[in-house]
Specification:
With 309 residues, this protein is mostly helical. It contains eleven helices and two strands. The chain is 76% helix and 1% strand. The protein has helices at residues 3-50, 53-58, 74-105, 108-119, 126-147, 157-181, 185-193, 198-226, 230-235, 253-261, 270-307; strands at 62-63, 70-71. It has a two-stranded antiparallel ribbon with strand order 1-2.
């Protein structure tokens, strides 16, 4: 056997080992996902054997741990929705705007200073954000509401949502900045050659090209907002409240899960098992949102490919 053939066989063996390792890594990831799903699903089934599934989804009263416990989760879902929407309303415009500035307008030196400063926000502990929301933002919202003749509580969904939005700004900004920078300069130069201004180029060429990545960044921010607990505990409260008024106190799914698991109830009690039912609903909602986003991204890519032919 020649040295060349021996080297080829060695290379093929290494490539097969690498391929096998990657297959194992992918399989572990998939099995882990199914393991998490089934661990939640089985306990949720036990809960729904004890309590009505339909009332859990549509009931308007959540009162575990008392005589005649009720597990209507609609107030919890409503609070999660309100706080998350407020957070995204703050994070997406600010995060995307800062990404556009850093990638399209800022000088390299300015960008090198601004991006690390912005990403410092991602390293701040969530409990510190909770203190900021409770001590600084909540009183400001109460005072601002009084100016307009409105009544706001010191534990409000608005205070929690605003600070949560600030927390996820670095996620959206950093990822969007990387995606926008990845758009080929040839597209920008072609737009300039057609007489477009810088702003028109960003609006009509750069952002459409980067839209799938921007959507992915926003979804990552959404996932982080859905999983946040400390800010809600300290700024929005613990009371399940079916209201669309952001000036009132309310709670979220993650906070209720924590409350259900840290009590003195037995593991097989409805109060404890309700945490798994809430976790299952949150898992399904996240899965549906991801499927919708992937569908939108796929349609956009097809449309953009057709338009660029």
């Amino acid at each position: 056997m020649s040295t060349f053939e021996s080297r080829n066989k060695k290379t093929e063996l290494i490539e097969k080992l690498i391929k096998f390792s990657l297959i194992i890594a992918a399989t572990i990831s998939i099995l882990t996902t199914f393991g998490i799903l089934f661990s939640i699903l089985f306990e949720s089934i036990e809960f729904f054997k004890l309590r009505s599934f339909w009332y859990f989804l549509t009931g308007i009263e959540w009162s575990p741990g008392i005589v005649g416990s009720k597990f209507g989760a609609l107030p919890i879902f409503a609070g999660t929705f309100v706080i998350t929407i407020i957070a995204l309303a703050v994070a997406i415009p600010v995060g995307l705007g800062s990404a556009i500035y850093m990638s399209e307008y800022a000088t390299p030196k300015t960008r090198d200073y601004l991006k690390p400063l912005l990403e410092i926000l991602a390293g701040i502990p969530t409990v510190v954000y909770g203190f900021f929301a409770a001590i600084t933002v909540a009183p400001l919202i109460v005072e601002a509401a009084e100016i307009f003749g409105l009544e706001a509580t010191f534990n409000s969904a608005l205070a929690s949502g605003v600070v949560m939005g600030i927390m996820i700004i670095p996620v959206i900004s950093s990822l969007s900045d990387d995606v926008i920078k990845a758009v080929p300069d040839s597209q920008r130069k072609a737009a300039f050659g057609l007489g477009m201004t810088h702003g028109e180029t960003i609006k009509n060429i750069v952002l459409p090209s980067a839209l799938p990545g921007i959507i992915s960044a926003s979804l990552l921010g959404l996932s982080k907002a859905l999983g946040e607990t400390m800010i809600v505990v300290m700024a929005a409260g613990l009371r399940p409240n079916l209201s669309w008024n952001p000036l009132e106190d309310m709670t979220t799914v993650t906070v209720t899960i924590v409350n259900s698991l840290v009590g003195d109830f037995e593991f097989n009690s409805p109060e404890t098992l309700s945490a798994f039912a809430l976790g299952l609903v949150l898992f399904v909602i996240t899965l549906i949102l991801n499927m919708i986003s992937l569908s939108l991204i796929r349609k956009f890519k097809e449309k953009y490919k057709v338009n660029t032919l």
